[in-house]
UniProtKB/TrEMBL annotation:
Pfam families listed in its UniProt record: ACAS_N (PF16177), AMP-binding (PF00501), AMP-binding_C (PF13193)
Residue ranges of every copy of the AMP-binding enzyme C-terminal domain listed in the record: 535-613
Name the record gives this protein: Acetyl-coenzyme A synthetase
EC number of the protein: 6.2.1.1
Catalytic activity: acetate + ATP + CoA = acetyl-CoA + AMP + diphosphate
GO cellular component labels: cytosol
Amino acid sequence: MSDQAAAGIYPPSSDFAANAHVNAELYATMYAASVADPAAFWAEHGKRIDWIRDYTKVKNSSFDYGNVSIKWFEDGTLNVSANCIDRHMVQRANQTAIIWEPDDPAKPARHITYAELLEQTSRMANVLKAHGVGKGDRVVLYLPMIPEAAYAMLACARIGAIHSVVFAGFSPDSLASRINDCQAKAVITADFAPRGGKKTALKANTDKALFDCSDKIKCLVVKHTGDQTSWVQDRDIDLLAEMAAAKPYCPYVEMGAEDPLFILYTSGSTGRPKGVVHTSGGYLVYASMTHQITFDYHDGDVFWCTADVGWVTGHSYIIYGPLANGATTLMFEGVPTYPDAGRFWAVCEKHKVSQFYTAPTAIRSLMGLGADWVERYDLSSLKLLGTVGEPINPEAWNWYNTHVGKGTRPIVDTFWQTETGGHMLTPLPGATDAKPGSATKPFFGVQPVVLDASTAAIQAETAAEGVLCIADSWPGQMRTLWGDHERFQEAYFSQYKGYYFTGDGCRRDADGDYWITGRVDDVINVSGHRMGTAEVESALVAHEKVAEAAVVGYPHEIKGQGIYAYVTLMNGIEPTDSLRKELEAWVRTEIGPIAKPDLIQWAPGLPKTRSGKIMRRILRKIAENDHGSLGDTSTLADPSVVDDLVANRMNRG
Ligand code: WTA
């Protein structure tokens, strides 16, 4: 181990830096330019994509609470699908655009060229048009990780429709609320979603969801597994059959840079999930630039992001970023542990993956199953590793570095959010000294500031701690919440005036490197998935035996954070183990399996102030098994409830 490694610092190797798109000097000059004159910087880098009509205005943004408005390249026009497909046809028609690896390793993988991508996307676009979907209409996608998910996203972009992908692990209720919130005209789903050898009945879930939606909504079904499903005449459409009969080319529509590309629902600290809106021009510039530079993507590389297209990571780094760059992107239908814990590495070997991008939770769970699974495979094709979704603990970073990276591949720990469209803080592999657990430095154009959480004072010293805000706009930023610009301003611009508030706490060390310390609001991060505690609470109180519920996060060895629920039952209801199971199952069906509480504690009462506000700080401490430092409980209406909660706490680890 080098002296630097012993000190926890991993500089880029000189070989890597020599061939990288960006080395340390270039990062310094480009970053300085990007914040000194953002409009000039992005005027230049906006040219990385193809415009139908060139932009003359680059940046037009205000973070002033009450007047928040964000526009990039506003008078330019383009088509995102044309940028991801058509513009590569001269050079790359026969290059693989998408490698599809099915859940079942015995089934053949598929290699879809850019020419095939154009044809399939066009066919699907023509089917959508035939069913009346056009510019500005919303289409909800509820699909397995299959090439049709990519075709569907790109087909919407091609005709100017706005897609909203709903993760296939969400329940019918969650699907229905998203369909209704964005008033979708059509839903694209599949019969079943195979994952880890099991099958989720997507069509049956969609049928249930559509009971609660307008009966005008069309349901386009990909017959993927071919298993039997119910069929509603005049509503359900056999998508693959209609694609086969459709014209193989569909012209693309000219879109404004600020026309919405997609809506993606994400959890917030209050209320129902928020429909984050991303638009066309700025998003694509930012997704493609971060993909190329953070991962140091070069022609001929095979890029694999293991996320699901139901999350923003899948949008930006399976579909839009890579395809805008003419890359080969791998799409994996399965899970890391099926048929065994070597699957990730088997896929890396089989498809000669160059860049591998996954979540810390996956690394921690594989770490627990032993490095033997990694050592069995030839991972010599790997050039770079990445992580996303939550802070990575140094132990997992070191395991990833040693066993997967063989101590020689750079690791990029990328901090970003559904709202940010692309990477915000990340090492650049040829430029930045990595430190296990730190997302290090801002990407071009990103101006992080650390504010004191309670006074909002700027922490100007290099070494500082507080909440992470961003001082000015960048092209990949969300523009609004679907149908609710007020809520958008409230959620992100009201607490720290003049700044975008990430909702995360952070520390900046003496070298100016950022360390994300986790959410400071009521959002928890379970296995790299965002979950609003309010959503789980409202699911729990919807159960007839539950009077009240309070949900907090607690540290979980594999998941990062687990879901800890305090439940007060209706008078006369007995707390039993079977009721606990019933409530777990209830939350699974109300929201989806990812929201199932890990621990449920029966709470005869919840700690409340005299004005009736639940003191979550106390509930968090008890859930963390840190009840020695509960602080002042004298303001509680009934301090004795705390003793009961401490005595019966569920986490004693
Ligand atoms: C957390 C995922 C630490 C953070 C792209 C953020 C991280 C939330 C990191 C967004 C990281 C994401 N280090 N924390 N590298 N990446 N987070 O919207 O709390 O699903 O606010 O976007 O994940 O989650 P989201």
